[in-house]
Amino acid sequence: MRHTYAKYLLFSTILLSAVSGTAQPYNYSNKENSPYSRFGIGELRNGVNTSLKGMGSISSAYSNGLNVNTDNPASYASLQLTTYEGAGEGTSATLNSGVDKYKVGMATVSYMDIGIPLGKHAGMALGMKPFSRVFYQMNDTSAIDTFGTGVKSYLGSGALTEGFIGFAGKVKGVSLGFNFGYVFGGIERTSSLEPLDITTNVISSRFYTNTRMGGLYWNAGAMYEHKLSKTLGFRIGGTFTASQELNANRSEYWIGYKYEADTAYKLEGQKGKITLPTKYSIGLMLISTHNWNAGVDYSAASWSQYRNYGLTDSLASSAYKMSGGVEYTPDPEGKKLVSRVTYRLGGYYGTDPVMLRNTQLNYYALTAGMSIPFRKNIARIHTSLEVGSRGTTANGLIRENFVKFGLGFSFNDKWFIKRKYD
């Protein structure tokens, strides 16, 4: 009975999260400001679970029977128990323009998912995870031809979320899996221009767009595992996501005003397509019976394929990421809690899709994390920490020095197993 109540409670939590996500995918704090989320579909979110974030976000070849790796669906074939997962995350950052500095931050719900084994060599998972986020607010005062000195303002907010279901199977060390999902959400953007000298006859203006989008989205993954000796083995893995399109519906408004606002231009219900890029990843894991694992990942995306209603944006032709990490559990069956904790370290480096003033942005971070077991190792609290930087102050751009932290949980249980006693 106790297990049944736990399942219902967790199902209710996930359902509530899904409903909340449909209405308003993620909540933002007033202090949040990510200037580079102005471009494309916004800042791409890292959807891997909290434990993987602690080891550099490696995911291509990572498989654990008690965790759900949604980045590579082939990992579902190794699930040993039904696994519930959820997490929240936060960021504290300093934005540096080379002249001014200011602090920003945010906290939000991250992901919710369930992994279910389907026999000894198959599994499935379903859930929701973040896809991208937009939140920026910027002002620029400069001289403009025929206008005088004016203030340009840029404001944007919104998010995309992915709901998915995936399946995987394994035959003789080879696992194949697929995720089938739906990406949905909306992005609002406002740009305005106002003169500093209000006594002039220049008219202020404001341009507003609201784009709602949604579409099917899939990706595939594969893994191969092989033992090198009694104590050491390896696993290679990879993922592939084809270029796909989201259906979009956009409304635009242009407002001009001197003393009172007047809508001078309106275009509602404009249908179009958002084209997302092809992506792939490949990874290698070393697996030891001495309670440690280590791995490396490489991933890339062809952002030259990106289109917004047929138009490109300030995006580079490609972007890549290299990451690595290690995890170690002193004694998984030990009596002391500290010996059963899994400790993780890692790092990553990559280039951002955004390219401004002939400068492609890069980012990097060092990571750490822990998984703390409870209730005879069937429940765990996961933590992650990322300390790094994104962007540059060269060419009048902005550098973001950030600290990201994550807090998640996982709970393992048995389903579809007939009990002799209750």
- Per CATH, which architecture? Beta Barrel
Mean pLDDT, nearest integer?
Answer: 87
Low-pLDDT segments, ≥5 res: 14-30, 416-422
> What fold name stands as the CATH topology?
Porin
CATH class placement: Mainly Beta
What is the gist of this entry?
The protein is mainly β and 422 residues long. 7% of the residues lie in helices and 61% in strands.
Key words describing this protein structure:
mainly beta, 3 helices, 14-stranded antiparallel barrel, 422 residues, Porin
What can you see in these coordinates?
The protein has 422 residues and is mainly beta. Helices cover 7% and strands 61% of the residues. It has a single domain, classed as Outer membrane protein transport protein (OMPP1/FadL/TodX) (Porin, Beta Barrel). The protein contains 3 helices and 18 strands. A 14-stranded antiparallel barrel has the order 2-3-4-5-6-7-8-11-12-14-15-16-17-18. A hairpin with a 2-residue loop joins β15 and β16 (359-374). The termini are close together. 36% of the residues are buried.
List the SSEs and their pairings.
Elements: H1 2-23, E1 43-44, H2 50-53, E2 82-96, E3 101-117, E4 122-144, E5 148-171, E6 174-195, E7 204-227, E8 232-241, E9 244-257, E10 261-276, E11 279-288, E12 292-301, E13 307-308, E14 319-328, H3 337-340, E15 342-356, E16 359-374, E17 379-391, E18 399-413
Antiparallel strand pairs: 1-4, 2-3, 2-18, 3-4, 4-5, 5-6, 6-7, 7-8, 7-9, 8-11, 9-10, 10-13, 11-12, 12-14, 14-15, 15-16, 16-17, 17-18
